[in-house]
Specification:
about 130 residues; alpha+beta; Cytidine Deaminase, domain 2; 5-stranded mixed sheet; 5 helices; EC 3.5.4.5; hydrolase; metal-binding; cytidine deaminase activity; zinc ion binding
């Protein structure tokens, strides 16, 4: 397992690849599956609804590599405190991560919060709800 500082640095590196000509708010993310890492950065579009967050890009990169269960996610943004994922990203985390999976939220100044998928999206809508 990769240490927290290394994962935060990988997310910072991913952040530098963000395409954010409209918001100027770059975000980087890295997910782990075993010893593998998959990065993502937010990519904006002039049609804002077509933009994609860093968290989802990283998760989808892992899924495209054949993984459907993500171990951890680390997200970095230029925020005053640890970054907070949007609701859509939280829902996608719920789809591909266990409720107890580690979620590390950080900023470039060293603020870090470690939490879980269940803690950031209590009462999540899951596959099981479709069978109710």
């Amino acid at each position: 397992m990769t240490d927290q500082a290394t994962l935060i640095q990988a997310a910072v590196s991913a952040q530098s690849k963000a395409y954010v000509p409209y918001s100027h708010f770059p975000v980087g993310a890295v997910v782990t599956v075993g010893d593998e890492q998959f990065i993502g950065a937010n990519i904006e579009n002039a049609s804002f609804g077509l933009s994609m967050c860093a968290e989802r890009n990283a998760i989808f990169a892992a899924v495209l590599a054949g993984h459907q269960q993500i171990d951890t996610i680390t997200v970095v943004g230029d925020t005053t405190g640890p970054i907070s994922p949007c609701g859509a990203c939280r829902q996608v985390m719920t789809e591909f991560m266990a409720p107890s999976a580690s979620v590390t939220l950080a900023n470039r100044q060293g603020a870090v919060e470690v939490t879980t998928v269940a803690a950031i999206l209590p009462g999540a809508f899951t596959k099981g709800d479709l069978n109710a």
